[in-house]
Amino acid sequence: MSNPSLLRADQIAGMRGRDRRGLIEAMRVGLPVSGVEELVQSGRLTLAEIDRIVLPRKTLAHRRTIGRLTPDQSDRLVRVVRILAAAEDTFGSREKAALWLRRGTRALEGDAPLEWLDTSEGAKEVESLLHRIDHGLAA
Asked: Quick one: which of 33, 91, 104, 138 has the most CB atoms within 10 Å?
């Protein structure tokens, strides 16, 4: 499913117009904090979810003064954006994706997919589940 209004990983501040290599280089330097702000302002994630998944609020406040995330924080941000984009693409709308991401599922032992995004392995499981759903396989 393709919808131009849906989130794409390259739409986050600091990632626009970058190819994969450019994105990796930008992540190594640290993406702008504005990427986190855009996720919150767009309503895709709450500050509490950012706090659990990407970086703690206290650290975010400190990073705002610096203007950039660390490479590790940038990596977590891109991981979350990639999952959000995949969910929006799979379900066809931001609203449907948001519901799915926050609702417990048997495929993730009763947890909501967002709860698994704090680790790379958890994110891989969520991506795999989205792939299965997108291809009509039993999820």
From this structure: 33
**Is there a domain that residue 76 lies in?**
yes
- The 3-class secondary structure across the chain, one letter per residue, is CCCCCCCCHHHCCCCCCCCHHHHHHHHHHCCECHHHHHHHHCCCCCHHHHHHHCCCHHHHHHHHHHCECCHHHHHHHHHHHHHHHHHHHHHCCHHHHHHHHHCCCHHHCCCCHHHHCCCHHHHHHHHHHHHHHHCCCCC
pTM of the predicted model, to two decimals?
0.85
Question: How many domains does the chain divide into?
Answer: 1
Q: Please give the residue range of the domain that contains residue 124.
A: 9-134
* Per-residue model confidence as pLDDT tens digits over 47-97: 999 999 999 999 999 999 999 999 999 999 999 999 999 999 999 999 999
d(CA 35, CA 103): 25
- Written as six digits, the tokens of 132 are 């299965």
4 domain-assigned: no
Residue 1, pLDDT score: 38
pLDDT classification of 20: cutoffs 50, 70, 90: confident
124: in domain: yes
